[in-house]
Specification:
Shape: globular
Mean pLDDT: 96
Strand order of the largest sheet: 6-7-8-3-9
CATH class: Alpha Beta
Number of domains: 1
Number of helices: 6
Structural class: alpha/beta
Length: 210
């Protein structure tokens, strides 16, 4: 998948429009940031583009060159990390990674142990994930999304629960793996989250009908 076309798309919850009449084209080897205040609808837009939510109006089209991809098969082409996505907390860290690798592959055929080294989590591979700190869980979520071989990468508030060292780790990881992908980041205007993005979508611009 190397192109996503958002066509006159809107999302409504009951009587409230989260965003309206949004049209945009996302292409490979470009990075986009969705900006807006807390509760403005950034995450909702991200979930619509990632096929987690269905738009109330309009359509989102997915392409591999000129070939349309069935929305039900888009999940094969994407990876995502967000605060609202849960890890299987009853698993050990090693079990989480092994389960993930049954579904998707890491870039360069990175092994489980190499992956854990990248995350600085090797010494906790036999620890149950529910006992991880919030920062450890966030590193795991981000690494699973970023290192997974995918055409599109969606990151919602990636610096959440990361300290300064964790943010620097995120920046190094995204610099290494973002090329040749469609990358979309949701941010509350935290530059360290989207410094590499070359286009901005401000959700506030799509609150009213045009």
């Amino acid at each position: 998948m190397n192109k996503i076309i958002i066509e006159n798309t809107s999302k409504r919850y009951i009587k409230e429009w989260v965003f309206r009449n949004l049209s945009y084209t996302l292409t490979a080897d470009n990075a986009y940031v969705i900006l807006g205040s807390n509760g403005s609808g950034k995450s909702t837009l991200l979930q619509v583009v990632a096929t987690i939510l269905t738009p109330s109006k309009g359509k989102v089209h997915y392409y591999n060159d000129d070939i349309i991809i069935d929305p039900e098969k888009v999940y094969k082409h994407i990876s995502i990390a967000s605060p609202y996505m849960e890890l299987p907390e009853e698993f050990t860290l090693a079990e989480v990674v092994d389960f993930h690798l049954k579904l998707k592959s890491f870039y360069n055929n990175i092994s489980r142990d190499e992956f854990l080294e990248v995350c600085y989590l090797s010494q906790w591979k036999n620890k149950v994930v529910r006992n991880f700190s919030s920062g450890m869980k966030q590193r795991l979520k981000l690494a699973l999304a970023i290192i997974t071989e995918s055409d599109a990468l969606f990151l919602d508030e990636p610096s959440s629960n990361l300290d300064h060292k964790g943010i620097e780790w995120y920046k190094q990881l995204i610099d290494k793996y973002r090329k040749d992908r469609i990358v979309v980041v949701c941010s509350n205007n935290i530059p360290d989250e989207f410094y590499f993005c070359n286009e901005e979508i401000n959700i506030e611009d799509y609150k009213k009908s045009k």
